[in-house]
Fold each of these.
Amino acid sequence: MEPTVELLWIPLGAGGSGVVRFNGRVYERWVAFRQRRPALDLFHTALRVTAPSGTYIVETMWPSPSGPSGARGVAVRGPVWWKRLGRFRLFRYEVRCWRDGLLPDADEAVGGPRVVSTDPAVAARILVLASRVPPLTWGVDPDGTGEMWNSNSVISWLLDRAGIDGVETPAGGRAPGWEAGIAVSRLGWMAE
């Protein structure tokens, strides 16, 4: 297998019950109204990393299904909305680096998987960095970056730390939290 790092731009709420999609649209309309611009499509991002040791799905999800975290490749856990709430499963997220993992919404990625690197060193670095993602509080702006930390922040942090830059969202869309990940990366923040 040739080493590759692929970025997937998945429409927010794809394949779900519609709650995430609906809430995302309401949020985006509010932000667009405040910024006096048209509403855009929102994306959730994930990576598929192919390395000599296998193919890995790197993404951020809620801690589901239950069971051993190693079975779903959990590399880091972080709190949602308020650090103290993170002790409750409902208020935690997981950064996964899941060998032979599933990405159920991969078929819905806009433009399909986009290769952002074929450098084996970059692929290996992302796999190592997955366990070093800072477990910042989801939904909170870290250090005044102007955006809240979320799943897109994790992916942009990984890409920036691995030396990949200049990634652009698909036309007519945006990935909230993307710039927060880059800002946190450039501040040098990492999990211990």
Amino acid sequence: MERPKVGVGVIVRKDGKVLLQRRTGSHGAGMWSLPGGHLEFGEQIEDCAARETLEEAGIAIKDIKVVGFTNDIMPDGKHYITIFVESTHVGGEARINEPSKCTGIGWFSWDSLPQPLFWPLKSFVENQGYPRRNI
């Protein structure tokens, strides 16, 4: 029996903005998403968040905490449970470390997020009213 996959989406805060990447080469190509990826077997959510953010964007983070999740059956047929975490930027300049997975990167205000948003992030923002407090 097939089961949903578990993803981790990392909200990296810096100067009132959040880090987003433009996806390519996978489902959701052309959409903007948070850094993140698959939770590995035996891995803590916070460790996954720190690992993926460093691997994908060259950013070190701290103060990692779970803030919600979504259960998404995406238009391409994939089914993901995405766990969202908040974190604080502590070092590194945002850069594209995986050009086969990402074609753009930048810091954005929650009031002016680029479109289109990757399905789990769109669901999280729309259905959970995130952010609930000022970033």
